[in-house]
């Protein structure tokens, strides 16, 4: 069961220990996705705090060990590690980010696989609307 969303001056906070609910919350926030847990995973937990502005979304995701795969992203997304270890794959390229080092940039229309490799992952994401960003770059 997921707690009802908490609306703060800074956005919305959702938290759950239910895998199906987490999948639905993350799909609503980013793109349709699938979550699987590793066989050796401990208790599952997810907390997502996000703010939506026109063509920009800023989110902080706390997630225990899990593997996620999305449909092609409709947006450009920049992922910055705050805590834990994460391996992100887009197409043929992969980048390991973690413990405050590294950055992952996911282009629009790219299918993304993300492996949260520790139980204490925290990632800051900045999502930019595809058309708005491409208009600015013209």
Radius of gyration of CA atoms, rounded to a whole number: 14 Å
Strand content: over 45%
Number of contiguous helices? 2
Name the quaternary structure: single chain
Order of helices and strands: EEHEEEEEEEEEEH
Mean pLDDT: 84
Detail the topology: elements first, then pairings.
Layout: E1 6-8, E2 11-16, H1 19-29, E3 33-36, E4 46-53, E5 56-63, E6 66-70, E7 75-83, E8 85-90, E9 93-98, E10 104-106, E11 112-116, E12 121-129, H2 130-137
Antiparallel strand pairs: 1-2, 2-4, 3-6, 4-5, 5-12, 6-11, 7-10, 7-12, 8-9, 8-11
Please explain how this structure is put together:
- With 138 residues, this protein is mainly beta.
- The protein is built from two helices and twelve strands; from the N terminus they run ββαββββββββββα.
- A hairpin with a 2-residue loop joins strand 4 (46-53) and strand 5.
- It is globular and about 45 Å long.
- The termini are far apart.
- The mean pLDDT is 84.
Short description:
The protein has 138 residues and is mainly β. The chain has helices at residues 19-29, 130-137; strands at 6-8, 11-16, 33-36, 46-53, 56-63, 66-70, 75-83, 85-90, 93-98, 104-106, 112-116, 121-129. Strand 1 (6-8) and strand 2 form a beta hairpin.
Characteristic key phrases:
seven-stranded antiparallel beta sheet; mainly beta; globular; 12 strands; 52% strand; five-stranded antiparallel beta sheet; 138 residues
């Amino acid at each position: 069961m997921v707690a009802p969303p908490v609306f703060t001056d800074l956005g919305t906070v959702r938290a759950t220990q239910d895998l199906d609910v987490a999948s639905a919350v993350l799909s609503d926030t980013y793109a349709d996705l699938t979550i699987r847990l590793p066989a050796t995973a401990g208790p599952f937990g997810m907390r997502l705090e996000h703010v939506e502005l026109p063509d920009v979304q800023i989110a902080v995701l706390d997630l225990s060990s899990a593997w996620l795969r999305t449909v092609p992203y409709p947006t450009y997304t920049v992922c910055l590690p705050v805590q834990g270890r994460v391996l992100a794959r887009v197409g043929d390229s992969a980048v390991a980010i973690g413990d405050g080092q590294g950055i992952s940039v996911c282009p629009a229309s790219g299918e993304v696989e993300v492996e949260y490799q520790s139980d204490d992952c925290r990632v800051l994401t900045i999502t930019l609307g595809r058309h708005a960003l491409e208009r600015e770059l013209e």
